[in-house]
Design a protein that fits this description.
By secondary structure, this protein is of the alpha+beta class. Among the domains are: 92 residues, Rossmann fold (3-Layer(aba) Sandwich); 52 residues, Dna Ligase, domain 1 (2-Layer Sandwich). It is 27% helix and 28% strand. α2 runs parallel beside α4. The longest helix is centred in the middle third of the chain and has 21 residues. The N and C termini lie far apart (45 Å). It binds adenosine monophosphate and glycine. The site of adenosine monophosphate (AMP) has 14 residues, from β7, β8, β9 and β17.
Length: 416
Amino acid sequence: MKILVTGKGGREHALITALSESPEKHELYAYPGSDAIASLATRVDVPDLPELIAWMQQNAIDLCVAGEEAWLVKGRGLANLCAEAGLPCWGPVKEAAQLEASKAFAKHFLQRHHIPTASYTVCTTAEEARATLTEFPIVLKFDGLAAGKGVAVCLSREEAESFITDVMEKRVFGAGNLVVEQCLTGPELSVFASVCDDQYHILMPARDYKRIGDNDQGPNTGGMGAVASRQLADSELMARIEREIVQPTVTGLIKDGLKYRGFLYFGLMLTPDGPKVIEYNCRFGDPEAEAVMPMVRGDFANYVFAAAKGELQRDLLQFAEGWSICLISASAGYPASSRSGDVISGLTAVEGARVYHCGTRQNSAGQFETHGGRVLAVVAQGATRQEARDKAYAESQKVTFDGMQRRSDIGQMHFE
Ligand code: AMP
Ligand code: GLY
């Protein structure tokens, strides 16, 4: 089978690795991919989506897997164009991908289908947004894609006013509304499901660490680490999440006429009143994919292929017991900026852990160097959380570059 994955980061490196480890040998392609991904998949170099579709048709690609979200909503939408071309695509059509692309769309969807979530108001102007600021903390969300930076949990009026100025007046993320939300408390949980029309399959849950610094200090990032294990949520909690959140979401999609085939990510907060949805993402999480993918057993490639064609074959996919821990190394300046060109040393010394490349490139001497905010993911597994954590930290110590930032409490904080 010929499979093309869209994207270029650590999540795509992990997805492509899992596809490459499926029992049968498949021809793998990545658009645009990365220098590291190139060792597993042929990179496709075309200017844009229409050319990609034409390329996939000319090259008889059997399956397109959506890694990152951007292509799903760009132009006429990756999955929409694949459908027109008769190409199986694992990733939803543009209309359904609004669940991720628009916070307001997602909130209206949640409310309409009675799925637990924080109360909210959608504001179209800075004045309207300022008028809602009556209690703190409060959560402000830009209503559009903002590379994980469009959300501010504001502890004070000053913080909230400054975010409103940036987003609604300076328009740092471009045009768009602002969703003002009640602040929820509790541990977070990322639940993933494969959704195939009216069927779903809940996968291994994970937890990510969004703040740059230890003890959840400092600004939000794309994710500084992740933990994956079935033990993150007991069967009673998972049954409640399925009943109150996953099922009504899938039924809601059908009721609203939104065709969905792909991974669906439920960003949840386990509040004292039960699990509530913070966000939907129409793809796997990053860095959660890096933690979950090494736990995949079975035939991932054929599972995704069958699901993209409308048949969810749950028995093709299993997950290992135990724990998986992913540590992200970020470049100097991240998340405000990111420094490129710092040479990475120690990559070949890593044993007993996987290294996925999130933002690297190869220089003219063939060395990998930093090329983006999040640079590398080092991921290890163990029978216990402590074992996985010890292994991941021991292996990650071997890899360094100038200005590297790495949290020291992944897999520890939120557990003790
Ligand atoms: P989002 O991009 O919507 O996932 O938001 C990013 C992060 O902001 C989440 O992972 C939470 O840590 C935090 N957050 C979002 N919404 C809320 C909320 N209603 N209450 C508390 N924290 C939130
Ligand atoms: N881990 C958060 C995300 O993928 O958006």
